Amino acid sequence: MTERMAGAYDNAMNLFLQEEALIEKYFPDDALARSANLYEQGYVSMKLHDFSPAEKNMLSALDFAEKSNDLISIGCAYRGLGEILKASEKAEDAAVYFEKAITAFQKAGDTYGVEEVKELMSK
Fold first, then answer.
1. Which of 13, 82, 92, 118 has the least C-beta neighbours within 10 A?
2. According to the 3-state scheme, what is the secondary structure of the chain?
């Protein structure tokens, strides 16, 4: 995540792929870990303007987040999908995901998450 935040997207992706292999080998039933990893892969792909794998990975992240029943992860995956669609100039579709993210964050009591999504929607 540090590499992603530093803008070193190729390094970040390589590390997330290594992490994915470890999760699959040692924690194959950990839906939350799989969700977080796929979220990161999707987010990095978006930053690299590679929108098709970004959306695919983020949808998989959402699937695993829902299996984990973790509302924060669900909200993050919806927010990520919104960001990907917004970046790929599908603003109307993005708004649907942003609204779902807000709902998930509200259910989790995460006011910061709600405000963050609202800010993304206003840009």
1. 92
2. CHHHHCCCHHHHHHHHHHHHHHHHHHCCCCHHHHHHHHHHHHHHHHHCCCHHHHHHHHHHHHHHHHHHCCHHHHHHHHHHHHHHHHHCCCHHHHHHHHHHHHHHHHHHCCHHHHHHHHHHHHC
